[in-house]
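ugh ok so i messed up the first submission bc i forgot one of the chains. this is the corrected input, ALL of the components this time, i swear. 1824 residues overall. if the numbers dont match what u have on ur side tell me asap before i send this to the collaborators (the ones from the other lab, u know who)
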Amino acid sequence: MFMRIDKLLTELPEAKKPDPNAAAALQELLGGKYGEMSTLGNYMFQSFNFRNKTQLRPFYSLVSSIFAEELGHVELVSTGIAMLNNGPGNQKSDVDLSKAPFHDMQGTALPGAFLSSGGGATPINSNGISWNTDMVTTTGNLMIDLLHNFHLECGARIHKLRVYETMTEPTGREVCAYLLVRGSLHAHAYALALKKLTGVAIEKMLPTPNIDLDRIPECQKYLDEGKHRRLYRFSPDDYEEAAGIWSNDEVALPGDPPGQLEVVDGLPEGGKIPELAGNYGAFAPDYAPEEIFEIASKLYKKSR
Amino acid sequence: MFMRIDKLLTELPEAKKPDPNAAAALQELLGGKYGEMSTLGNYMFQSFNFRNKTQLRPFYSLVSSIFAEELGHVELVSTGIAMLNNGPGNQKSDVDLSKAPFHDMQGTALPGAFLSSGGGATPINSNGISWNTDMVTTTGNLMIDLLHNFHLECGARIHKLRVYETMTEPTGREVCAYLLVRGSLHAHAYALALKKLTGVAIEKMLPTPNIDLDRIPECQKYLDEGKHRRLYRFSPDDYEEAAGIWSNDEVALPGDPPGQLEVVDGLPEGGKIPELAGNYGAFAPDYAPEEIFEIASKLYKKSR
Amino acid sequence: MFMRIDKLLTELPEAKKPDPNAAAALQELLGGKYGEMSTLGNYMFQSFNFRNKTQLRPFYSLVSSIFAEELGHVELVSTGIAMLNNGPGNQKSDVDLSKAPFHDMQGTALPGAFLSSGGGATPINSNGISWNTDMVTTTGNLMIDLLHNFHLECGARIHKLRVYETMTEPTGREVCAYLLVRGSLHAHAYALALKKLTGVAIEKMLPTPNIDLDRIPECQKYLDEGKHRRLYRFSPDDYEEAAGIWSNDEVALPGDPPGQLEVVDGLPEGGKIPELAGNYGAFAPDYAPEEIFEIASKLYKKSR
Amino acid sequence: MFMRIDKLLTELPEAKKPDPNAAAALQELLGGKYGEMSTLGNYMFQSFNFRNKTQLRPFYSLVSSIFAEELGHVELVSTGIAMLNNGPGNQKSDVDLSKAPFHDMQGTALPGAFLSSGGGATPINSNGISWNTDMVTTTGNLMIDLLHNFHLECGARIHKLRVYETMTEPTGREVCAYLLVRGSLHAHAYALALKKLTGVAIEKMLPTPNIDLDRIPECQKYLDEGKHRRLYRFSPDDYEEAAGIWSNDEVALPGDPPGQLEVVDGLPEGGKIPELAGNYGAFAPDYAPEEIFEIASKLYKKSR
Amino acid sequence: MFMRIDKLLTELPEAKKPDPNAAAALQELLGGKYGEMSTLGNYMFQSFNFRNKTQLRPFYSLVSSIFAEELGHVELVSTGIAMLNNGPGNQKSDVDLSKAPFHDMQGTALPGAFLSSGGGATPINSNGISWNTDMVTTTGNLMIDLLHNFHLECGARIHKLRVYETMTEPTGREVCAYLLVRGSLHAHAYALALKKLTGVAIEKMLPTPNIDLDRIPECQKYLDEGKHRRLYRFSPDDYEEAAGIWSNDEVALPGDPPGQLEVVDGLPEGGKIPELAGNYGAFAPDYAPEEIFEIASKLYKKSR
Amino acid sequence: MFMRIDKLLTELPEAKKPDPNAAAALQELLGGKYGEMSTLGNYMFQSFNFRNKTQLRPFYSLVSSIFAEELGHVELVSTGIAMLNNGPGNQKSDVDLSKAPFHDMQGTALPGAFLSSGGGATPINSNGISWNTDMVTTTGNLMIDLLHNFHLECGARIHKLRVYETMTEPTGREVCAYLLVRGSLHAHAYALALKKLTGVAIEKMLPTPNIDLDRIPECQKYLDEGKHRRLYRFSPDDYEEAAGIWSNDEVALPGDPPGQLEVVDGLPEGGKIPELAGNYGAFAPDYAPEEIFEIASKLYKKSR
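and heres the new structure output, hopefully the right one now
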């Protein structure tokens, strides 16, 4: 079972104007083979299909808490995409529909993002191809699944880096920077899990790709907070056994600010979920939102 | 952000033997167009892409809390599939691999379920086709999205019914029965949301398909508990505004046990997540689980 | 069985120049989930798979005649795409192929439209993804299928609107406008079918999205002709029982020109199918069309 | 524009019992790369995208009238699939849903055919894979398109033959036999079109594969009627120029009953569209069909 | 550039009868995510896209020679599939096509294998899903690509093991056994490449999954020959620099017969490519093979 | 079995700057339905699945040697794509990652080419869609397979022509020109194979499309060398029986430089495989290539 808290993992700066090509680039981090739908899907099905959960509790707990975090990553990158596609919006209903007000949406990298989803995020990559089951590995052999996950997080890191390197918009840069810090931690976590199973110090391969996060300005605040050392349980009462892997005798990677690794109860503080104001012409609401709000508010008050 | 609680929405009876064809049928309810990945994916992206969240809070809250529940549905049906594919398992390592111990896995409905995933669930339908973005509608026009969702839940209901009608195994029947009760509630919820927006009493179309749940024996305990009347918030502090729609002036559908509709804080009680014991020959673990458990337990104790 | 009449449902203005990005946008209305291949495919398979055709004749007739119309919609939007991609064409064979005469086709939204199909329409959406079976719902439960169809036509309407809002070329605007009028009628028809089955006045949700067609200048002539009130049988002798649903006690929607709904025998008058003149360099015909024409004409005359 | 006539191209014998594996085999002829959706899709888009229609009228007419026939082929094979999946049906509503009345649908070749479509046909092949745009060739170069079509019809012929060779059910055998006769004619027609363009007597390659139709008992009546020599226009007034290709100086292929080739006005006589009686348990109608029929009949009478 | 030698990597025992379900299982090792098309596709595109080939010659050479070997793996597994589907064949032309001679092909795991390909291999997995680009990783970052490859070979190993465990037919068992030995070597090779780059002794994780090959009787002859220690260059003159990685200071893995690793010039000896005799009814050859053979032989002799 | 020679089939001019849109166009010739992956995949599986190899040796040899050549075509077009995407590269590590150094990669035709593959080639078409099994025909009926191949090469020719016509970059033009010459030869070869089987002079349809290669300047040197008349065996000892088809009594096509057709032993001379220098920012190598080179060189020397 799952609960949702109505916050984002971090606060995203507003997009000053619609930038559908930046949003399309960010789609690679949502629906691409090395995107957040993939990290989510892999850890989710590995966790559901996990054999011998009791005997292998620390490993099950590690995969399960990272899976829970990935839900928030999907939310973060989806929100970033919707913000970039949308810009500040324009809800005035007196738009002249006959003047091709959205002509600029032709010839963008993913025209369907506007035409079908009104700028919303969908589980596709930057070329428009759907996320799918071929991007999920769940063999049930713990070693292979962990090795896959380690490779997946390293691969995801180079994708995040490249998307960042195309990005001038602060909204998208923030998404990439946050995901780079947390993805680096996940790579580290799977490396340590493999080390506990095999004795091989595979974490010495990190960071892969070999770019320290201090070259990304937007990462600094997250490193200063220790976000590269803190594994959140993302559960009120469960998964603390992940500390058997991500434990206090392990420390941050050499290129990052030093410190001991910690398993943290619950959740990070997070940031506000943005209000997304639509464009009247694109959404054509069948109602006046204010009016509906008023009716619904009354009903809600009555219901308490 | 999200949290996971290490419980299933309901307890599932153990599978007495591997039944890969029953598991394949259940895949329709996981990865099919009208399966739980679809209800999840639709409400998830609609919630992330929602325009005017503040002004339309009751609707945003309704979609968001149902989305959070759907995560648990995906978990429930995935667990059922893994249980049916797996049966009781056999972890003895002295299996003779050269005697074709898994010959029976040839010619099943989805041979890849064993060959690739060791019997684990994956996001595919009963014909083996991947879940994908074509199964997600997120237009951003609230009316269309709700209408889609209402149709989706009615469509999902006939799929659940048909899968149930093929099923002799108690594990799979329980999954179907639970999903039928909760899916019926979701259809009802979206109907009421549409009624609040338009004044049209579309909930009078329910139940669609026209099968009362009292014809399904496994549904009775859920109806007796009122699971058809209780919308859980699946959030510690958020989404209570869903009560503006699912409120106390609305009552259960005529064919179901009578009572007022309620928004319930937090979560249902839920059941135990099953231990899945693998087959040595199929999983070939690279370690002795007991040994690893001992090492990891020590590390964990040290970490506290 | 089917017959084809060599006319378009409406006449389309010529495209003055190739506009592949406009054509790509229009592909959303051909091969997208809410495009004409989808409305066609859904009603076609629902009609072929229809249970109890005799007892439910009015419903079978309604789905069947709308399906026959959708064939013409696929033709109309395909023709529009080919016209926009093609422009006026250039059949002179003295083009210098070595001077990159089609360099402008690089970097368009769908380069394959030129490279593979010479600008012809294909069953893909605006992101280049194929139409496929996931876009077809044919449960055989009449209520669910009709509910699906009602949602599909409403969803199609917002797609048509958005494509229109990107479009400056008259060819594409005309396609959108025609489809908006007829799609609105189809939404209305499925609403009435649901009302006959359930008594719920679901047509009061229309128009969804909430944009009256009088805001689209190109729609006016079609409204003036009553194209929003006339359901053509698209059959010489069959499907008149659709009048049990689209009958004379029902009237046009409030925002449209008033009048009674009518079932009309046969076909609308329609317009000319355009001659598409290709580019020599892109089509490289293996023959001189005039010469072939002469030979074939003689053979044809001989054959009569 | 198109019209539908409520008849099948030929009459199909009733299926005595549900035979989902036979229906799955027949799906190869509906949604496979060499199935009827492919012949339809290829000729449809070639016809819509045709360059220089006036100058190349006989070729345009040939492709267009065969395309119109293919609509009827899709209808025929879809109907066969639905009949085989369905069998005689059982509409009694007192079925005990809790006794797994459809257990036999587990482990069939395409379980989703029952679970999702209630036994209806969908555009997939015998392995469950969707028909898609990769199966459409529309280069706009007439020679290449005709050459493709010639190869497609020869390829389709071996698929039809193989499906026939697996088939014991009369319903499915009849579908294959009918399609074999007409497909052979279409291969012949494209061969003659190529001959008119190039002078190469490519029709001498026929029949490919090298199986005379007199080895298929169900083909005899169609050969006796001359169905291998008659190209129907499938249009009330258009496409007679196809006679420039399929003309009276050409004769039937050597292995078939001799005679001159003819272009025939209009349509073949055809057979009855079967009533498909569903199973109550699988379709769960939301209404009593008789009752609805009565209401609708009254409305219809009133409407005339 | 490439050359083909008309031999198989190893000789395969004949299939005594058609066994389409065994062939379908083997398809997982051809077209599955962890099958030979994937190992081929990954190393092929990595080799073509390789950056800094000169400076990183040993790594380029390693990937390139393994890629060349994978071509032979695709050939081996394809041949095994065709043999299992085909059995001994029956070329007599007096088969009675009207007696459903291939009725047994209905209800197999992949009916399309017979219906469309006459039992030939195609690039699909055991569920019928196509191999595709999502199964190719070519980031251009050498570490990530090698890490991916290492995980891929370990994952491939558990797939090979599971397919073997379903297999009673000697043809299929031989394919699995050969691929297990060579796949183990490839995993070892990528491990050593990673070690040279990073100093991490990742080869200590092998074998993964943890099944020594001496538990597979069919593997013994290959181990005895040293096939687990010999990296063939699969090139007349190139790629010997792979010896910088697979060099003489490295030895076989502990569970395998001991010995030094060697780079071997050229090719293994290999075995005969089997003659596949088709079934007349399924292939319907348009010619008498003997006759054609005679004509062609004469032409060939004349041509020398 | 296969061997690789570390050379390209022809030498490609360097790309002076990154041109991702030209590279995207060239992808049509790699992963499109009529691209080199398709010609490769068709002939590869036809060769592996070939029935009666001994009796039909000249045909088997023809398909097999062309298949071996296609491996080199895939290599050539992949190399061209990587060169065009990459340009001259920049390996300096002091790039400022935070200044969006790859902003220009947003809004290109295939953003994923950079974001995921760092500009490497992948098996997709110009719209980003994966190559897949639907593009492979292997019926096992020799006539149909050859007819398919003949149509495929003609279709490929118009694709190559159109890509060429969009191309200003010499790298891409050279690829197209080379493929046009060799593809024309392959079409000719399949035509002759069909003629030997059937007596129909189908090669008289060539060239299709009807563009003589002397209109393409980059083709001249290949025509002068006789590359349109020489079928290489691409094998050290096998496939010479192809001379039964491509023999000395057949001559070049009328529009090409005259001469007899020849089967040539072994391989063409070929050109250099280009060094591709990456961009530091995009590849972030985890090592200094020079250093690694030195270590590996020492190891390699030691190994000899």
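quick check: The mean pLDDT of chain D is 95. that seems consistent at least. Chains D and A do not touch (no CB pair under 8 Å).
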